Amino acid sequence: MRWRDGLRQWAYGWYAIFLASSGSVSLRAWCTVVLDVLLSRWRVAPLPPLPALRRSGGVAVVTGGNSGIGLETVYGLARSGMRVVMACRSVSRGREARAALLQRWKAGAAVDIEVMALDLSQLASVRAFAAALIARYDRLDVLVLNAGVMALPRYTETADGIEAHLGVNHVAHALLTQLLEPRLRVHDGRVVAVSSVLALLVDRFSAADGPRRWSPACYRPFAAYAFSKACNYVWARECQRRGMTAFCVHPGGVKTEVVRNLPPPIQRGYRWFADWCLLTPAEGASTVLHACLCEPDTLRRQMPGTFAMLADGGARSIPMPSWMNDAAVGEQLWRCTESWYAERDVAWSGRGGGAAR
Ligand SMILES: NC(=O)c1ccc[n+]([C@@H]2O[C@H](COP(=O)([O-])OP(=O)(O)OC[C@H]3O[C@@H](n4cnc5c(N)ncnc54)[C@H](OP(=O)(O)O)[C@@H]3O)[C@@H](O)[C@H]2O)c1
């Protein structure tokens, strides 16, 4: 629509002037986040031609594939001809979601979607899932690290004693990636981490204080979420440096159940606001699918010079602050994350997999 394009250009024009004149990093980050959410609907790019992007025969895993962006990602990957594993913490919710997805297909269409149990709040569950997947499939082409929790109202820990945002959104996904890496390397498989523009709110990063960064006394829900999403990005960059094909995306502001932990009045406001401002889950998933299905070289070309998070179905990339692309920070996060598994994964350390807690 013409008036929308005009308004968008006007808003971005002012925003560009503001960015150029403002010296405050956190103010700029906040403005980016707020503008990103407000303009989600106006920036939505045409969906990539998914039917043309076929990867028949490949195997994909989507964590949190039973709802929101994950569910639509499962749908898109299955439509592209892949065998898809929905990795869900509740197998019954996963099966219900799978049944609903299958109803979208024409009767008789061959669709290969399987539900497997994966609870990212327990590292033992991550190991069990990885072992089951490796036993079942001899290759893995796409691993989508999508599941996430946002803004838990109170300080919460995973079964392994890690703050829940960090544990579920980053540590468990990082362990999963490492366990599945041999299968990913069979056919140049790729990792797609679903992060968020909220990662920009983190202006200080010391991976060393990860699990100790939050305590019941100093806990801030959105800051904990933002930190875990910054870890997603830094981790994906480090995977790239270590020779894996890995991308990080921001799906946009998307109307999903991600707000389920916010106070009910805020959830009601969100739903009202979401209807006219945010993307649908299918539109949000288009960015994830773009990163899953496009040729890696095409994707790399979309992130020239400074690396960035892909957004808007590949039509836009969000430049990330230089510290997030710093190899030393990536290396530090990698080493710390490994030590967090070893220290915290009690079941595994009991079998000699790491140091005792
Ligand atoms: N919506 C947005 O505007 C937005 C913006 C930026 C980034 N994102 C990111 O997009 C991703 C998908 O979120 P969404 O918006 O689609 O929200 P959603 O509908 O709430 O989906 C989250 C998924 O994560 C799963 N999950 C949560 N904890 C888990 C655990 N311990 N083990 C396994 N699975 C777990 C949930 O499973 P259950 O159904 O069992 O709870 C659900 O399937 C998240 O990483 C989120 O941070 C979303």
What does this molecule look like?
With 357 residues, the chain is of the alpha/beta class. The chain has one domain: 3-Layer(aba) Sandwich (Rossmann fold), CATH 3.40.50.720. The protein has twelve helices and eight strands. The protein has a six-stranded parallel sheet, sandwiched between helices. The chain starts with a helix and ends in an 8-residue tail after the last helix. It binds NADP nicotinamide-adenine-dinucleotide phosphate. The site of NADP nicotinamide-adenine-dinucleotide phosphate (NAP) has 29 residues, from helix 3.
- Gap between N and C termini: 58 Å
Q: Structurally, how many domains make up the residues?
A: 1
Report mean pLDDT, rounded to a whole number: 84
Provide the CATH top-level class: Alpha Beta
Give the DSSP E fraction (strand runs of 2 or more residues).
Answer: 5-15%
Which parts are unreliable, with pLDDT below 50 for 5 consecutive residues or more?
Answer: 350-357
- Residue share in helix: 40-55%
State the strand order across the main sheet.
Answer: 3-2-1-4-5-6
Q: What is the CATH topology assignment?
A: Rossmann fold
Number of strands: 8
Which value, in Å, is the CA radius of gyration? Answer: 20 Å
**Shape label:** globular
Give a list of the ligands: NADP nicotinamide-adenine-dinucleotide phosphate
Indicate the structural class. alpha/beta
- Helix segment tally: 12
CATH superfamily: NAD(P)-binding Rossmann-like Domain
Task: Explain the layout of strands and helices.
Layout: H1 2-21, H2 25-38, E1 59-63, H3 68-79, E2 83-88, H4 91-102, E3 113-117, H5 123-136, E4 142-145, H6 164-184, E5 190-194, H7 221-241, E6 245-249, H8 264-277, H9 281-293, H10 296-301, E7 308-311, E8 316-319, H11 327-344, H12 346-349
Parallel strand pairs: 1-2, 1-4, 2-3, 4-5, 5-6
Antiparallel strand pairs: 7-8
Helix pairs in contact: 3-9, 5-6, 6-7, 7-11
NADP nicotinamide-adenine-dinucleotide phosphate (NAP) is lined by residues 63-64, 66-70, 89-90, 93, 118-121, 146-150, 168, 194, 196, 250-251, 253-254, 256-258.
InterPro entries: NAD(P)-bd_dom_sf (IPR036291), SDR_fam (IPR002347)
GO molecular function, one term: oxidoreductase activity
Transmembrane segments: 12-30
